[in-house]
Specification:
OB fold (Dihydrolipoamide Acetyltransferase, E2P), 80 residues
Length: 80
């Protein structure tokens, strides 16, 4: 399994203390639960990471996401 993926942003939405990010075209082996990676608003680099995700989404750039643990379809991928 991997703890890093790259793809174009499919969807971003903020909800309470989390931001959910989904990427297009991921292999099933590296797709987290419900296809979402999580970015906590209390993350030390939250502003920079959220801005990076927004720029990637608007401009259709590929975004690389690294997670704390291995990516499985049993859990959301939590960003490092």
């Amino acid at each position: 399994m991997a703890n890093r993926v790259k793809g174009k942003v499919k969807k971003i939405y903020a909800h309470e203390d989390l931001v959910y990010v989904s990427l297009e075209g991921l292999d099933l082996g590296v797709t987290p639960k419900e296809e979402f990676f999580l970015l906590a608003r209390n993350h030390p680099n939250y502003n920079a990471l959220y801005s990076l995700a927004l720029v990637a989404a608007v401009n259709r750039y590929e975004l690389e996401i690294r997670t704390k643990a291995e990516i499985t379809n049993q859990e959301y991928g939590e960003d490092v």
